[in-house]
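Continuing the series of single-chain predictions for the mutant panel. This is the parent chain; the variants come on the following pages.
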Amino acid sequence: MTTIQLLLVALASSCMWCCYAISAKVDLDSPFDTTTSLETFFDSNAKGPGLYKFRNYFAVYEHHLQRFRGTDVHVLEIGIYSGGSMKMWRSYFGPTANITGVDLAPSTKVYERNPKYGSPNQILIGSQGNMSFLTEVMRLLPRIDVVLDDGSHFFPHQVTTLDALYEHLAPGGVFLCEDVHATKEFAKHVFEHYVDSADGVIGAYGKHRSRQSFSTIQRTTAEVSFYASQVVLEKRGTKRPFTFNSERRGTEWNPHIDMADSVGRRQSTRSDG
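Parent structure:
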């Protein structure tokens, strides 16, 4: 091949890689980097009912809750403080949303159906740590699609609320607990009981191998997410029943390698040496 031919081949190769690099440019923006309508609402709330949020929460809300906008979603927020969040959720979910607030303070009852606070459908007064009260909440709210726990931030109360309301949560629903930095034990509880235990989402593999029946958590939980000071659990919908089957497609396969056995042999070789 002549020198000119070699140069032409090199030039063509360079152009090809240049075109590939241009076409393969990755958009590094994350959904969590964008400004949401909730954040815009928060920044415009210069007057009126108080609203207190960590700024990183808004993208998490958007990620998990945007599919409920403009629907008849049934929302339960625990801990409504000065009422600004009631107004924010009404603005976000829309006029057909059914929004219920829970608080210990009897003074928050005035928010109920009050346009100044976004006209929440009802305000219930009671403690989230009281199982009798939570049972009454579930009786009054036979359908709950979204639970927002911004209440006492007290670990026993958070656990009582999650364990009581999660099974009651509608298919496809979202349970979001925030300000978990106040008690890191809650995030630990969720991981140990809803993720890592034999009945947690990861434990489904063990149940599959041993042919045991799956737990309620495994059959109904689609996702468990941990964020800065927030924990979110999403339930599965009803369109696709839960299955955990390992399946194969194709006809050409490499020899199977048992990784556990392979690691064991390597460790044995090292110790023998």
